[in-house]
Amino acid sequence: MLTSSALYDAAPHRHAPLSLSLSLGLSLSLSLSLGRRRLRRDLIGSLAPMTGRRRWTFDVALTTVVAFLVALAAGRIVAWMAWLLAWPGDDHLWWVSLPAAGAAIAVLVVAFARVTPATTEAYAHGVNHGGLAIGPAPSRFVALVSGVGVGAPLGPDEPMMYFGGSLGAFVARRTGRPERWCVLAGATAALAMVIGAPIAAALFASEVARRGVPRRHDRLPLAIGAVAAWGARRLSGDTGGVLGIDPGFTLSRVAVGALAIGGVAALVGRLFVPAIRAAKRMQVPLGLRVCVVLITLGTAIVVGWWATGEAIFLGPGERLRDWAVGASQPGLLAAALVFAVLVVAMVACGVIGGLFLPLLSLGSLLGVLIGRAWLPDVPYVACAGIGACCLLAAGHGTPFTAAAVAFATFGWSSTAWLAVVGVALASSAAGDHSVTTFQIRAVVAGHPLHRRAHRRSAR
After folding, report:
1. Are 268 and 394 contacting, i.e. CB atoms less than 8 angstroms apart?
2. What is the domain partition of the chain in residue ranges?
3. Which of 51, 97, 202, 224 is at a distance of 20 to 30 A from 330, taking alpha carbons?
């Protein structure tokens, strides 16, 4: 179960046995690759005489199997990434070269594969217009593993959502069934294994494609994906994910802090989102992008390690949040600013990665800074958790997801409800100035980058 300190340990470390996930994944791939034409023909022929109820039952069963297998595979990938990021110690200074080199390789892979790093936009395009672009998925996965997998300061969250949806689309096309259910369930299951909150993952998989409450006909596949991820986490011995533990804070201690943090988060979101938008629009030459990645990331990780004795800039912010507990106020502010600049630089250079976990990290640091400066009576954990939820709502434009994260962190408590109030304030004050709004408008308008990527995947 997610506790109040879950934001300091967002990635799951215990998952189903490797042999189980590999055997299930191998059996699925073999069944789809060996005689797939015959399998597809037989499935379509067997479904032809089925009634509507039997077709619906078959689709539910297929969606459930796909979501569960995706959850197992995503869990192993995330556990491997978490192990790599937790490995470097104080005596492993040689490790600082790997994130910069890996991110540069990720940029080169995306460039030579002639795809875009816009995995979230590709997913939103597939959900809104049908026909998710799965052709670029292998090269994007290689770029994700080589960059974010070895410590580039972005999250595996949104790319994993795209990969989960791509696997669902692949299975649906091979079996001749409508792919929307498999896409939504696979995306939800994969994302849930990354962030550790199945309900929040289901809402995010819907909100990034269409802001607001999920459509009625999308709720069942989203629920299937969330339940599949919940079951996969139970198999690994993880008991969290839906509701956290009530921290026991009183209403009077947290109320003022939630309002203050929500208002400041909206202002920070209005500053951070335009930088991300500008970074996504940039058309930087390949050589310059590689140089920027090598110089900025290599320098920041070395200086941060030298100044703090820890690799605080590795990954999407878990190490930085751990270090922030005992950091001074000026040092914490400087580290938060450097981390924000690194995130924007990675987006501008075309490194494949997500913003979900980095926004949670930045929001957590923002809440801690506000709490230390002006809210000494508000508990540290409450400031960090509320700040994370508020900045996610203001920056990404996903208030329902942020509210679900609040309940997954603080349980069914007054602190969670006050966090929801802060989320509502931050989201209202930020308005349409969010990353999701920009992505949805780009998809609806048919941004040239997305059109080119979609045409290449169709070929």
Report:
1. yes
2. 6-235, 251-443
3. 97
List, in sequence order, every residue forming a beta bridge with 155; answer none if it has no partner: 354
Report pLDDT for 49. 56
**Cα separation, 361 vs 388, whole angstroms:** 6
Q: Which amino acid is at 271?
A: L
How does pLDDT run across 30-86, given as a tens digit for each residue?
344 444 455 455 545 455 555 667 888 888 999 999 999 999 999 999 988 888 877
Q: How many CB atoms lie within 10 A of CB 387?
A: 32
Residue 7, pLDDT score: 43
Alpha-carbon span 223 to 293, nearest angstrom: 39
Give the residue with greater pLDDT, 13 vs 400: 400
CA–CA separation, 220 vs 226, rounded Å? 10
Tokens representing 120 are 């979230």
CA distance 371 to 419: 14
Q: What CATH number has the domain spanning 6-235? A: 1.10.3080.10
Copy the structure tokens of residue 304. Answer: 């941060």
Contact status, residue 258 vs residue 421, Cβ threshold 8 Å: yes
Given this model, what pLDDT does residue 239 score?
64
CB of 348 closer than 8 Å to CB of 369: no
CATH superfamily name and code, 251-443 = Clc chloride channel (1.10.3080.10)
The whole-angstrom separation of Cα 348 and Cα 357 is 18
Q: Average pLDDT in the 321-337 region? A: 91
Least Cα distance to 358 among 424, 275, 255, 247 occurs for 275
pLDDT > 60? residue 457: no
36-47 vs 18-33: helix axis angle to the nearest 10? 80
